[in-house]
Amino acid sequence: MNFAPSPIADSEPPHDCPLCPRLVGFREELRQEFPTWWNAPVNAFGDPAAWLGIIGLAPGKHGANRTGRPFTGDFAGVLLFETLAKYGFATGVYEAKPDDTLQLQGAMIINAVKCLPPQNKPTPEEIRTCRPFLEGQIAALPRARVFVALGQIAHQSAVKALGGRLPKCKFGHLAEHRMPDGRILIDSYHCSRYNQNTGRLTTEMFEAVFARAAELRDESAR
Ligand code: SF4
Fold first, then answer.
1. Per-residue pLDDT tens for 191-214?
2. S-S: 155 plus which of 24, 63, 81, 171, CB 3.0-4.6 Å?
3. What are the DSSP E strand ranges found in 30-106?
4. pTM to 2 decimals?
């Protein structure tokens, strides 16, 4: 099947990463049931010269776990990619498949957990086990000065991966946290179907996050 090759391949987990037994078992079940799906750790997607890092939670079953590209093919991807395009972080046409013409400009999407967890809920141990890959991917983006965390779990993993301290960095939509080396983390509610359908996250609220990221980008360019 077509899938997006990683722009930071050296920091990705192996295709058959064995480190989380529960997730490996789920992966094997889905490989039997849906042999044409990606069903493997999902690579980062975006621009290796990224100025903005976007930290998601984990692949969605019918999105990234099926297509092999973060947020591609599921409900959450529509709002995310529309918003990235609106603020100059994406070009091309998003068609919910990894061989469409969508490209990220100055941005990279990375998941905190690379494999699909049952019910979209990784355990604390799985989040911890996968963090070295997140840290490696962040380290592979030396130009990234701003990160957006999508949801509380991504926030917690991002704070740790960026060298911050959780007691000082409380999650909140549009909250901004300065990391010890000066990088900035902006929080957002996750753009999941649930959050959008319940009104917890509106389009305007989500756009405000990337408007702020774009503002920081434009300030740094002056
Ligand atoms: S979640 Fe991360 S550490 Fe766990 S099996 Fe997948 S790639 Fe490996």
1. 999 999 999 999 999 999 999 999
2. 171
3. 45-46, 52-56, 90-91, 103-104
4. 0.95
Residue closest to 66 by CA, chosen among 74, 54, 77, 55: 74
Select from 133, 137, 157 the residue to mutate for testing ligand 1; criterion: most ligand atoms less than 8 Å from CB. 133
Number of neighbouring beta carbons within 10 Å of residue 48: 14
The helix/strand/coil state of 176 is strand
Rg of the chain taking only CA atoms, in angstroms: 16
Q: pLDDT digit string (tens) for 32-80?
A: 999 999 999 999 999 999 999 999 999 999 999 999 999 999 999 999 9
| Residue in this structure with the two tokens 């809920």, named with its chain if needed | 121
Question: Does the CB atom of residue 114 touch ligand 1 within 6 A?
Answer: yes
Candidates 6, 123, 126, 127: which one to mutate for ligand 1, based on the most atoms within 8 Å of Cβ? 126
Report the nearest atom of ligand 1 relative to the CA of 113: 1
Looking from the CA of residue 17, the nearest atom of ligand 1 is 8
23 C-alpha vs ligand 1 centroid, how far in Å? Answer: 7
Pairing of strands 52-56, 146-150: parallel
